[in-house]
Amino acid sequence: MGENPNLSVSVQDSKAAYVLSNVAEVVERILTFVPTKSLLQNASVCRLWRNCARRVLRTRQDLSWVSACGPCHSAVHALFSALTEEVENVFLLPKTVLAIVDCETFNGQDLSYRNTAKRSRHGSDPVEDVNLLFPKSCDIMGIASPGIVLTPHSSPTAPPKEYQEGEAGFAIMFPSIDGVQIKPFHFCKKTISSTAMKEAGLIDNTDLRVVLLFVYEAYKCGGARFLNQILGPLAETKALVAGGLIESVFSPPRHCCTQGAYGVVGLTLSGSKVQGASVLLDQDVSTPQSAEVTIRRLKAANIPEKNTIGFMFACLGRGQNYYNNQSNVEADAFRKVFPNTPLFGLFGNGEIGCDQIIKDDYTLCDTDSEGLQHEYTTVMTLVHLG
User: Of 22, 120, 253, 372, which sees the most CB atoms within 10 A?
Assistant: First the structure.
């Protein structure tokens, strides 16, 4: 008498159901292949799955990003459209997001992801998707600058591109990382003080390793003094300082200062696992060969490739015109030296940084606040997050 095929399938299903309901090792292994949005949904299946999902989330400590270039065929900037599309594929739970877009095509949308999702050109409502990706506890910093440098999000080894014109932007997503603390800050002339800088981790912080800072409206009366008020104490620390003078800030909201007032936003990166190095491509660096030679000096820091990101803060006066009508020179030079490290950055109205190495228990730097400020240069930076 032959075996009942329906009975055989039923037995197999019952065995699978037992395993998926009771064997944490199997469930956890399966969930490692699930993007964050689906992972959070799966966590509601049962207590076992919830505990497995939490353990999987804690292992996702590699940064990720979404980038886009235009033109976009909707009223929303290309980056924000890309975010709503790529939310399904991200394998981390962001704790901090750094978003940079071009100021030429950006029309001032607030980086409120619920509103962004509602404005999406897609028929479905991705509000829930976006909220799952960027929870309310996530710190979001959004700035606009004259030009953008980005790596396509398809692969960290994809060639980075410089966009001095046109629609472009990126959002770097930092998860919670063991041994690394990333903290945003925002000051204007009304809120800056030694106490506020201490609370932000900018001073009296022995674990401070890297500071990324972006100054807006710095050309206004009093802006230069304000900038020195920030850079003076930082020059006395052992932290790597890098950034630039940008056009505007659209997140967090600027409730503390009036429209057109100067200020600064940025991120402090603290913890023993954080490493950093930067080099200055000064005005004499004007050929592809000299750019590569200068960037190659970053190799001396011997920073690990894994979970390392490159930042390029360049003067708007450099780029294609500076290199005798050759495009993408500095981004190409970086990729030649660091083919497995993604590169992001901006073209701005001034550069902040110097030749500097922050690694393990030593620091190599000798400068003051004036030595951190430049024009017609590029600050090329590596940041490792453990």
Answer: 372
